[in-house]
Every structure is written in structure tokens, then in C-alpha cells.
From TrEMBL:
It comes from the Eukaryota. It comes from Triticum urartu. One of its GO terms (biological process) is regulation of DNA-templated transcription. Putative transcription activator involved in regulating light control of development. This is Protein FAR1-RELATED SEQUENCE. Belongs to the FHY3/FAR1 family.
């Protein structure tokens, strides 16, 4: 049944259920989709371990953290094909980092 590699779409779940498949092979499940993704240590870009993971945060901060990560990712993808947009995004992130530092 599983002849190719890649990321499955959400629609395939219905097809698999209709075919009697109750378990998705692990090569099709991204780590970030698993419960273990929030239980691992997080590191900064320079390799230093962060002091706490998102599981140590209050519910309000955790919600803001996750929403911010999502917005960051969407903005990065929106900018990636245009040098001007990418430069703007790079500067905005740098400015934000400076303000928070």
C-alpha cells in the first residue's frame, strides 16, 4: 500500500481508514506532529540550550508563543521568493531582537 516517500496529506487519513489501515508508518509522520516534539530540549541557533521549553510556560504565554511561531513561519514563507521582502523581514526580526535584548 505504501509505495512512495513523502509527507501525506490530511485527506489520505480517510482513505486509509476506509482501507482498514489503523496505523500510519512512522516514515510518513513528521516529528513535529508527535507528542514527543514538545518534550525535547530546545536550542538556540548557536547551539546553547534554552532555559525552558514551551511545556514550562503558563497557558497564556504558551498560546502567544505558538501563535508567534506560526506567524513567523508564515511571514518567512511569504518573503522567501522576493529579495526585497526578505530584506525587510530580516531587518524587522533584527530590530525586534534588539528591542527585546
Amino acid at each position: 500500500m505504501f509505495k512512495s516517500l513523502g509527507i501525506i496529506c490530511r485527506h489520505i487519513i480517510v482513505v486509509l481508514k476506509n482501507k482498514g489501515c489503523n496505523k500510519i508508518p512512522s516514515q510518513y509522520v513528521l516529528h513535529r506532529w508527535t507528542k514527543m516534539a514538545t518534550r525535547q530540549l530546545s536550542y538556540e541557533a548557536n547551539g546553547h540550550m534554552l532555559k525552558g521549553t514551551s511545556t514550562c510556560l503558563s497557558p497564556t504565554i504558551k498560546k502567544l508563543f505558538l501563535e508567534t511561531c506560526s506567524k513567523f513561519s508564515l511571514a518567512l514563507h511569504a518573503a522567501k521568493y522576493c529579495e526585497g521582502k526578505m530584506r525587510y523581514f530580516h531587518k524587522a526580526v533584527g530590530d525586534a531582537f534588539t528591542q527585546l535584548g
